[in-house]
């Protein structure tokens, strides 16, 4: 079967499930992930919890890693691309304060639970990379590129390539080191103290 | 039993195992951690692998979290306190290049495996905090304090409190984002591009 035909088939099949129903399924997947972790999550459990058939799940999403990655992506409230405040500081602050703190802490717990699974399951890593990590990095790079175009940051500033590492450090280290949950106010202060000075802003 | 007596009893008991034998036990614990993870590691398995009795293990280390934390601490080759090159850049570079890259990658895999366990097991978190995290932060703060005393960094630089978050970001994000193992050269370049400029060096 040719690529396009296969693609059309997938779209046709996908259209059988309404966006509302897909959202319900994604929520159930995230609940199960929080309850039993990635290794404990089975397509059987998702089917039972959502009163759907395993055949439907596999037809719609192909595999467990793909379903989990799409559920996580659905969970992201706003695309980074929509942020454009006119200054790098404004963009970065909006990035970290746009989702409410409870949501951010639930996300942190979820991602922490997945971190180990990612290394045991290359398919999950691949799906997360394509659906979640790459779009976030692309969004962050758009924000940074606009700052360079506005003349806020020198095009050859070596910290540009490490912005994502710095942000992950703030996100991950807060509760590991300080035993306090991450929140928007902390990340905004971290960005002001570390990332902006490193970028020469 | 009074605190001091209990403490003395523990030291007396500890002395029954030679440092060489303790090192063997710690290596076996780290091997098991890599093989089966924290949740899968049992005191029975450690006893079998090391041909010791479970009673000895409990008498010597008290609990599984304590044994694991001591094994991880034993694994750290050099104390940060021993580093004093005369410049902040020199100290930080020596910090990240002192252990060989293979060792660093094995450590990263180990810590990644523990990250989830830490959140499920408060006793493990407590033991790691006391035996591993706090001494590292204290060592890093000593390095930073000397830089302030030398006049390299302003005492009120807001990035001082976030140095550990930045470093953890470099350590953790490298293989998550770039799918490449962390190494000393990468961390040295990350320190030069981000941490030193943020500190005004």
Task: Provide a quick synopsis of the model.
The first copy, chain A, has 201 residues and is mainly α. The first copy, chain A, has 10 helices and no strands.
Oligomer: homodimer
Relative helix content of chain A:
over 70%
CATH topology of the largest domain in chain A: Tetracycline Repressor, domain 2
Largest sheet of chain A: none
End-to-end span of chain A in angstroms? Answer: 53 Å
Shape of chain A: elongated
What is the number of helices of chain A?
10
Q: What is the helix/strand order of chain A?
A: HHHHHHHHHH
Please name the fourth-level CATH homologous superfamily of the largest domain in chain A. Answer: Tetracycline Repressor, domain 2
Mean pLDDT rating of chain A: 85
Strand content of chain A: under 5%
**Which two protein chains have the largest interface (Cβ within 8 Å of the partner's Cβ), and how many residues from each?**
A-B, 38 and 38 residues
- Which CATH architecture of the largest domain in chain A is right? Orthogonal Bundle
CATH class of the largest domain in chain A: Mainly Alpha
Content-based structural category of chain A:
mainly alpha
Over all CA atoms, what is the radius of gyration of chain A?
19 Å
Structural domain tally of chain A: 2
Poorly predicted runs of chain A are: 1-13
Task: Give me the count of strands of chain A.
Answer: 0
């Amino acid at each position: 079967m040719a690529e396009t035909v296969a693609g059309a088939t997938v779209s046709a099949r996908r259209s059988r499930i309404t966006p509302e129903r897909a959202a319900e399924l994604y929520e159930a997947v995230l609940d199960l992930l929080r309850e039993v972790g990635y290794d404990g999550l089975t397509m059987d459990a998702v089917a039972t919890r959502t009163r759907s058939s395993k055949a439907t799940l596999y037809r719609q999403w192909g595999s467990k890693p793909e379903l989990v990655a799409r559920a996580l992506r659905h969970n992201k409230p706003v695309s980074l691309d929509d942020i454009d405040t006119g200054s790098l500081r404004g963009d970065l602050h909006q990035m970290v304060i746009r989702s409410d703190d409870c949501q951010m802490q639930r996300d942190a717990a979820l991602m922490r639970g997945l971190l180990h699974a990612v290394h045991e399951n290359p398919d999950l890593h691949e799906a997360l990379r394509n659906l979640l990590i790459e779009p976030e990095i692309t969004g962050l790079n758009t924000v940074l590129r606009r700052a360079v175009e506005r003349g806020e940051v020198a095009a050859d500033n070596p910290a540009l390539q490490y912005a994502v590492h710095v942000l992950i450090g703030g996100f991950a280290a807060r509760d590991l080191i300080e035993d306090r949950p991450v929140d928007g106010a902390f990340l905004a202060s971290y960005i002001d103290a570390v990332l902006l000075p490193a970028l020469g802003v």
